[in-house]
Amino acid sequence: MSQSPMPTELKLQQSERQLVVTFNTGETFILPCEYLRVYSQSAEVTGHTPDQAVLQVGKQSVNVDAITPVGNYAVKLHFDDGHDSGIYTWDWLYTLGKHQTEYWQDYLNRLAKAGHRHPDIPPTPLNEIL
Question: How far is the C-alpha of 62 from the C-alpha of 68, rounded, in Å?
Fold first, then answer.
């Protein structure tokens, strides 16, 4: 039976607004605070069912103020926008790192579909709008 990856180092880089997580697999992931915030596993974000999920908008400049250990299986991230109800298990942090490109693109797609602009979404050419 294989064990789940465990972090060997968590390093909050507030000036870059990112969390660097190194796992015992040798992998290191640089997770932007915005990405962590929009993929929080809290009921406020995910809802209690998938149709209750709330799209997080305008989180580009969010940062993490503090990190609190939760047992030996997770951390709670305290964001500077007041959000602190999500628990980030080691498995969830690893999943966010492994799937960062696809999860981020999915988030950008959902933002665009909801009519929101994000700096990472290139502007639509005028001829496509008309």
Answer: 18
